[in-house]
Design goal:
alpha/beta; six-stranded mixed sheet; 18% strand
Amino acid sequence: MKHITAIAALSLLAACQSPAEIPLIGDAFAPKSAEDALEPYYRSLPDDFFPHAPKGPVLPAADTVLTRILVGSCLDEEKGESTTLRTIAAQQADLFLMIGDNVYGDKDGPANINNQPELDELRASFRDLAAREDFKAVRAKFPMMVAWDDHDYGANDAGRGFVFKRLAERIHERFWGLDDKDVGAYPGTYYARTFGPEGQRTQVIVLDTRFFRSNLTPTDEWNKKGKERYIPSADPEQDMLGNDQWTWLENRLQDPADVRLIVSSIQVLTTDGHGFEAWSTLPKEQARLYNLVRETEAKGVVFVSGDRHTAFLYKDEAALPYPAFELTASSMNLSFAETTTEMDKAQLGEGYPPENFGAIGIDWAAGTVSLEVKSNTGETVRQATTSFR
């Protein structure tokens, strides 16, 4: 689709003025931001403007007992055939969680992503993903739940200030078939589903850590170990989820469930191992999350994350009323190293940087959840087990 003059003009406004007000003389109903100015155009876009994933199996029925869930993040759609995706497609599981950086739709465009009001590269990246035979095999095999992270949101490390986030949301929801469900009815891409009867209920809560997130605090010592990109924010108004999503999460944590997988595209339990994106960069929000679990008396919480291009397991004895565990599964086909010296005080053993995916096993008879890091050929390379009773 060709860019039109009005949209080109709006992109300049977005780059120069967002999120400040855009004055339109003589218009009492002038849009107050570049986002508002673009909204009528975005609403008019035809369906063929948007890429769509191949059809896949529907989610398990509400009374289905889940025993195995696979997890993956960070997939570069431009790379060749993925051993990890082919291995995942050969697995047996009840559900696959694809939890962020599902494409890299912001790496080849102009340096200023805010000059792309139609997010051409992001849409092209999703079309490339849909055409991959290895992705088609995974999509055809498993029911899926999805989260986004910065690279499938549309801008590296971006939060609520990303001008074109409303179009990015439409692209995400239409690609994954979420636009006609509850998540398509409100801003942001968070949602939850519960499976299994009483005593065997698994709740999967997918958070949106992009659409509402306030600015992070840049490091004062670039690439220093533990302070690589960001340092913890001291802003009293810091926000990770936004008011509506926080309220929604409080309600979901009060839903009946025996095991709760809280999916966050960025890591939750880390505090001192690195200076990249994580909940620890907004420490008041990290504490708020832990306090919410305490206040709602939500049992069986296990955190699941991606983003880091290294897989990790974590255990924090103090974060929740019971030991808190986290599985970080990353990445499926974009490894940057073979080994890592990173160590957080909550970390269980060494990280695993080669290509990988995660597996979560639920043993209802024993009352345990196993968290596994799998190599790209399916071997278990890291493992931890926690009780949910």
